[in-house]
Amino acid sequence: MPPKTALTTEVAAAGRKRRAAGFTLLEVVVALAIAGLALIGFFQAGSSGLLAADSAGRVGEAIERAQSHLAALGQSNGVAEGEIEGDDGGGYHWRLRARPIASQQTAAIDQPGSPMTLLDIEVEISWRAWGRDRLVVLNTRRLGT
């Protein structure tokens, strides 16, 4: 075996440094796979956030519509027992139900013997979003004749 010289040792050390300085194909593929999974996670989180914001906005609008129907109830004439429904526009449908709970005869001076009825009022607003039916229901009680 020939004796090692300083030049041979330097060439061997430089070869080792050169091989250790780069990335292998396997390392690059693994890094790309990890980056791809991270991007998928970011996109899913972003789309879930947009979906939640849209859903919250639609629920808020449905609550406002239900409150509006409750406020309009009985404005023109008295509250009466029954059920009515209709289309509210924007993909919303409404249903209002008034069911009697209790009734009592009153002895008022201006209306002798007129019965007063306590009604359970329910307003339901429904719509379809993201392939599913959604629903908001508000309940209250009012006096009717």
Protein model, in words:
The chain is of the alpha+beta class and 145 residues long. It has one domain. It has two helices and four strands, in the order ααββββ. It has helices at residues 6-21, 25-72; strands at 82-89, 92-107, 112-129, 132-144. It has a four-stranded antiparallel sheet with strand order 1-2-3-4. The chain is rod-shaped and about 130 Å long. It starts with 5 loop residues before the first helix and ends with a strand.
Write the layout of secondary structure elements.
Elements (H helix, E strand, L loop, with lengths): L5 H16 L3 H48 L9 E8 L2 E16 L4 E18 L2 E13 L1
Antiparallel strand pairs: 1-2, 2-3, 3-4
Give short descriptive properties of this protein:
single chain; 145 residues; alpha+beta; 4-stranded antiparallel sheet; 2 helices; 44% helix
Structure in a nutshell:
It is rod-shaped and about 130 Å long.
Tell the overall outline. Answer: rod-shaped
Strand order of the largest sheet: 1-2-3-4
Give average pLDDT, whole number.
Answer: 84
- Order of helical and strand elements: HHEEEE
The radius of gyration over CA amounts to 37 Å
User: Terminal Cα separation, in Å?
Assistant: 118 Å
- List the total number of helices: 2
Say how many strands there are.
Answer: 4
Question: Low-confidence runs (pLDDT<50, min 5 residues)?
Answer: none
Q: Describe the biggest sheet?
A: 4 strands, antiparallel
Which secondary-structure class do the elements indicate?
alpha+beta
**Beta-strand content:** 35-45%
Helix content: 40-55%
Give the tally of structural domains: 1
